[in-house]
Amino acid sequence: ISTVNGDLTLLIERFDETLRKTLEILSSVALSKAGTEENVSKNSVKMGDKKQLVELLKTLEPALQKKKPKPCKDIMEKLNKFEWAEDIKSKVQELDRLVNKYKFKEAQEVVSKLY
Description:
Number of helices: 5
Shape: rod-shaped
Strand content: under 5%
Distance between the termini: 87 Å
Largest sheet: 2 strands, parallel
């Protein structure tokens, strides 16, 4: 019986060691993958410039004037994909809020401030 217990103890110790090593490797792989995904998501947000802003606003204005929610929301999606300088960012957020509330006239006023 003591031989069986000794063999079981040895097997359990080996299993425990192998499991610990496996978990360490999996943990490092998971951390590495998470770091890569974080870098990809950080890099996928591009800084917007004035030229891009003006181009998007020029496509947004007619949709606002015609009070077309779908085109407005599509253009706002494109605007929101960029990271904007702080002074522009707050106005883009306000514009997004107004478009989502179908307040097209107020949104046009914000657009005129963004040029």
